[in-house]
Amino acid sequence: MGLSRDDDTKFNAHYENLKIFKTDPFGSLDQEGVGKLIAMAIDLGRKTRPDIEIGICGEHGGDPDSVAFCYRVGMNYIGCSPYRVPIARLAAAQVALAKGSKTENRTA
User: Fold this and answer.
1) How many domains does the chain fold into?
2) Which of 106, 103, 85 is nearest to 95 (CA)?
3) Model pTM greater than 0.70?
4) CB-based contacts of 52: which residues, under 8 Å, 6+ apart?
């Protein structure tokens, strides 16, 4: 997407009003666009190296929708800022319970 946090205050609200962004792209991962690229990278990376550890770090790691996406595409871990850790842990637990599987819940 080629966006900069430093510049987003100039256009983000306008883009959200025009429905170009469904939500703040710095707070919730764009699963339809960027997410497809992430899923492709994970798939291709695991074909080359099946044991590769893949995760995400940043505010997306503390967003419940983004955490669910990370789980679906097979990431091993998420990281986020300390104040979002409780949200991330809860979201990861809810996704794991909904899928009926035991997963390692590592947040940083």
Assistant:
1) 1
2) 103
3) yes
4) 45, 46
